[in-house]
Amino acid sequence: MLALEVEGLVKTFLVKRKPEGFKASVRSLLRPEWTEKTAVAGIRLKAEAGETLAFLGPNGAGKSTTIKMLTGILHPSSGHARVLGMVPWKERAALAFRIGAVFGQKSQLWYHLPPADTFELLSRMYELGRADYLRRRDELVERFELGPYMQTPVRKLSLGERMRCEIAAAFLHRPELLFLDEPTIGLDVIVKRRIRELIAERNREEGTTVFLTSHDPSDIEQLCRRAVVIHHGTVIFDAPVERLKREVLTCKTVRLKLRDGARLLEKLPGGVRAAEAGPSAWRLSVDTTTASIEDVLAAFVGHCAIEDMTIEDPPMEDVIRAVYEGKAGGRPAEEGTV
Amino acid sequence: MMTPALAKWHKYRAVGIITVKQQLHYRVDFIVRALFLLLILFIFIHLWRAAYTSSGSETIEGFALNQIIWYLVFAEAVTMACPQLCVRIEEEVKQGEVAVRLIRPIAYNGFHYMTYLAEAGLRFIVQLAAGSAIAWAYMGSPLFGWGWAGLAALLPGAFTVAFLLNLAVALLAFWVEETRGMEFVLQKLNFTVGGMLLPLELMPDWLERVCGWLPFQAVLYFPARMGVAFDGGRLAAFLLTQWGWAAALAVLCAFIYRRGVRKLNVNGG
């Protein structure tokens, strides 16, 4: 069964042009100039119920605009979409009962109040029965380990604690489809991992379709089975995440800081290249198709006196560039992938 | 089993309850507003005393000094209780928070109506208490008989019309970047032709007639006037006019919302 079906979705905005200079500003007041900006340029997409889909792209690619159209918040300029069988912008209220959304940069929790109050409000908004709500709330509190935070005002919670509450709140009404717009933005590695685990668990146990946007390749690797990359408002890659990992996410960056006087290995392991070398700080590029990251780390930890070490995924811009350069042969949008 | 109507009632009631809970955290705001109200009333008490002394009469257009001061207390309490809806909606649009509102199964205008009523209701109680303290001390007790019942009967309609007038302007934020200028004009119309500073009876006849055709009187003049000088016959007329304006403005707001939401550009990621 299809959770969503999108055909030729386009969204354009009129943006006021404001030229520099005082005279130009006055002229703009009297005779404003408008330019048309295309945020989404004919997206075609399908997703099966229960799928975990990563919707990727650099800033300004049209990810959030697409999500806002699919949740009924924005009306498209043209094109069609059906989400759970409904046209989102025409049946927004009815669809709202069946979908959920978390916007990483916008809180749904009431700032001065404990999350418990927002949960109570949401239970009323989604018209949950009392017994059902209490059972569901307790279940989510237990799974998301929210017990210590439920009675703490939101303003006193850390970002990680708040995000766990946000995501649990989004699951309260058992949405069939959950839109997650950069849910891990600004979080530390441990919290990110926990949040991914919790979302994956809901997907596994309740069959919730997950539609995720993120700038963090780890979110995609660990949570999603399919990746759709958009750029300039169009889909440029649509394939299983495994393929994206195999063909594009083939490089990790390891940053090493050695203790004073310590030396790096005489010979770097196969698949490892020094991108930047300093007396004590190194940036190494690891080709994960030829070297396992675990083996590389073991080699360094076993033979060097390390003060600090970090592992980074390639930035999304590099992923996009690699897709553009044809490193990954993901199917274009026209072919569709279901 | 909950009926759909009951579920809806619980939904909007829950919005009201959480708004009151959140508002209880803004104690400093309450105190500052209350102190400002005390200052304004202190000045007006002295101005009106001087006016009554110079007129040499016990009443002006049928209002005793005591009634005029309490009229001011009621009108000011309503004015200062009204939340700044335009600022809120404009910020929601600018910051993209409107997205969080629109993904919920609740009417956008209905959500804001409940938050407005809850906030205004709570603030009104605080402002009325502050205003009463000074008016009682200077003017004596507010023994207006059924006036209090009249005031209570007209308050929901007053806040509803105030909300809808502001919403009609605030929703323009879906098109334009700034609504504060229009809000400023609306506020000043309320202060003048809405009868905040003085009852409409004290205005020139032609202006009183003009005010009678405008919705602003329904917000401040109706409840404050009925509070200090109860008139059963006029209460029914006031209620009818008030809710008539509310119905007309609700239709206008629904129309603006439907058009605006299609134009909406939700900012931010």
TrEMBL record, chain A:
Gene3D superfamilies: P-loop containing nucleotide triphosphate hydrolases (3.40.50.300). It holds the Pfam family ABC_tran. Signal peptide: none annotated. PROSITE patterns: ABC_TRANSPORTER_2. Keywords: ATP-binding, Nucleotide-binding, Transport. Residues 24-257 form the ABC transporter domain. It comes from the Bacteria. The keyword ATP-binding applies. One of its GO terms (molecular function) is ATP binding. Belongs to the ABC transporter superfamily. This is ATP-binding transport protein NatA. It comes from Thermobacillus xylanilyticus.
From TrEMBL, chain B:
Signal peptide: none annotated. InterPro entries: ABC-2_transporter-like. The keyword Transmembrane applies. Keywords: Membrane, Transmembrane, Transmembrane helix. Pfam families: ABC2_membrane_6. The chain crosses the membrane at residues 30-48, 68-87, 120-139, 151-176, 236-257. The keyword Transferase does not apply. PANTHER family: SLR1174 PROTEIN, SLR1174 PROTEIN-RELATED. This is ABC-type uncharacterized transport system, permease component. It comes from Thermobacillus xylanilyticus.
